[in-house]
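Q: Sequence in, structure out?
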Amino acid sequence: MQHPSFNTIHHVAIIVSDYQKAREFYVDILKLPILREHYREERQDYKLDLQLSNGAELEIFAVKNPPKRPSYPEASGLRHLAFKTDRIDETIAYLEARGVSCEPLRTDDFTGEKMTFFFDPDGLPLELHE
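A: Exactly. Output:
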């Protein structure tokens, strides 16, 4: 039997507490194109599928009263999402001009590449990596 093939991430799914705030952040500020957008009556939630430039998708689910995400100390599970950019300084300036604060720019200890963190409306850590 051949070994299994895990080529790339197909999608990452996140749960948000406020659909409109999340939609404005990911679509209007981060400029991720919408693939599909649905209100699911049977579940009374929204599902928004966004396209990333490498072909992967970001699935956003908006549900009523989701439990808060534990952050500090960090809990087991997904730690953060990281986005790659070719122009980190310009991207940081773009985000900050739209009210999204970024942590100070630093260098990754292992790769030597520039990086920073910012947060979505629910406090999900998002990394920007050059």
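The radius of gyration is 16 Å.
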